[in-house]
Amino acid sequence: MASRTLDIILFGASGYTGKYCIKEIHRLTKGNGRFLTWGVAGRSETKLRAALSECQKQIGDDLSKIPVVIADIEDDYSLRQMTAQSRIIINCCGPFRFYGEPLIKACIETGTHQVDVTGEPQYMEDIQLKYHKAAQEKGIYIVSSCGYDCIPADLGVVFMQKNFKGILNSIETYLHVTNEGVKAGPHFNYATWESLVHSIANAKDLAHIRRKLYPTSLPRFKPQLKAKPSIHKTNIGNGWAVPFLGADRSVIYRTQRHLYENESLRPVQVQTYEMVDSLFTVIAMAFYGSLFKFLVKYKFGRSLLLKNPALFSAGMFTRGSPSEQQMKNTKFCLTFHGKGWDGEFVKPEDEQNQPLSPPNKTVVGYITGYDPAYGVTAMTVTLAAIIILTETEKLPKGGGVYSPGAAYAKTSLIEQLQSNGLVYKIKSKL
């Protein structure tokens, strides 16, 4: 990769997430002794230059000389030409089940690393199944879900494992998102809604992929962590907890499986939940969720969902974009409720010495931050790309397709997230 003209290319830079990434790449590639070069890529030079101009006005720095590369996801040659110019690609062009794989192929052909911001489990696991060996042969790293989906949750579990000081058996995560100071409005843009519709519509594909990806099951450690009722009270906050339907749990599983198979670490059992402030909101979510699950099964239903995102999401998703002020005032707190035992670590293969008594230790961790959907996503995916370039020796040896926790467990990513606005805390009791 020594002859490449750029360190990083941002693909899909003119989209909503891409514009956030432009600002974060500009900020993070020139700090802490870094002097990394970068450019933007996409189909339209006009839109790319407009995105740079818009970001230039917001940050007050000159971006007019940032290289612009034209590449189209439907033109394999243009993708190879683009990827050959850079050491790593940040891919913000979704839905990834439609637009992700051609760029993966181009990166493998040209020996280029890639990170992305997908939250689509079927896509991520299918890519790992198809391209892990090819990526290893090329010595490149392909890491998906490097945005708000799912770095906070996945690296949060790794953070808990490092700080538990004993044998960690299980973690329940609780996500609470609040809006401070401004009237609530849409939280996500249309591209996120489109990905959600297609992911859930094709959820049945995931079981087939997993049977091939994981032909053997992980050992069942006791006590088994069972899912709680769909709606339940908890001593974490004052609201109600409902199942979290995002990709966190599937990504965490991939990480825990990697750490078990390659580092002899006991895989942590995980259940994921979301906190809701009022019972009325829970009832509304149940109504909209039931309607969504019914419609997404059918072609006409998916068409309705895609044409009317605000109507079928109670305004959470729109064809427009959330205001910058609203995003800045959106706060998230992700709580990790971990249970296990005091004492020395026991390797998972040491079946005779596994603890048999009920867990006697509880550790609670928190991750908090602002602007999760876009600001955090832009920051985390940029740092994920930079880490691959600057801490390659701390990544899993030889390249491959990985989840964030598997790729970055031994790197400084958690510390760099803390230095850039995310707060990590550990305490022994709720």
Tell me about this structure.
- 43% of the residues lie in helices and 20% in strands.
- It is α/β, with parallel strands linked by helices and 430 residues long.
- It has two domains: 138 residues, 3-Layer(aba) Sandwich (Rossmann fold); 236 residues.
- A seven-stranded parallel β-sheet has the order 3-2-1-4-5-6-13, sandwiched between helices. A seven-stranded mixed β-sheet has the order 8-9-10-7-11-12-14.
- Helix 1 crosses helix 15.
- The longest helix is centred in the last third of the chain and has 19 residues.
- The radius of gyration is 21 Å and the shape is globular.
- The mean pLDDT is 92.
- One of its GO terms (cellular component) is plasma membrane.
- This is Saccharopine dehydrogenase NADP binding domain-containing protein.
- Pfam families: Sacchrp_dh_NADP.
List its traits:
single chain, 430 residues, alpha/beta, Rossmann fold, 2 domains, 7-stranded mixed β-sheet, 43% helix, NAD(P)-bd_dom_sf, Saccharopine_DH-like_oxidrdct, Sacchrp_dh_NADP-bd
Brief characterization of the structure:
By secondary structure, this protein is of the alpha/beta class.
Q: Which range best describes the helical content: under 10%, 10-25%, 25-40%, 40-55%, 55-70% or over 70%?
A: 40-55%
Adjacency order of strands in the biggest sheet:
3-2-1-4-5-6-13
Number of strand elements: 14
Helix and strand content put the structural class at alpha/beta
Strand content: 15-25%
Question: What value does the average pLDDT take?
Answer: 92
**Total domains:** 2
Uncertain segments of ≥5 residues (pLDDT<50)? none
Q: Could you give a short account of the major beta sheet?
A: 7 strands, parallel
- Tell me the distance between the termini: 49 Å
Shape: globular
- Rg from alpha-carbon coordinates: 21 Å
Helical region count? Answer: 17
Domain Saccharopine dehydrogenase NADP binding: 8-143
Family: Belongs to the saccharopine dehydrogenase family.
Organism: Ignelater luminosus (Cucubano)
Protein name: Saccharopine dehydrogenase NADP binding domain-containing protein
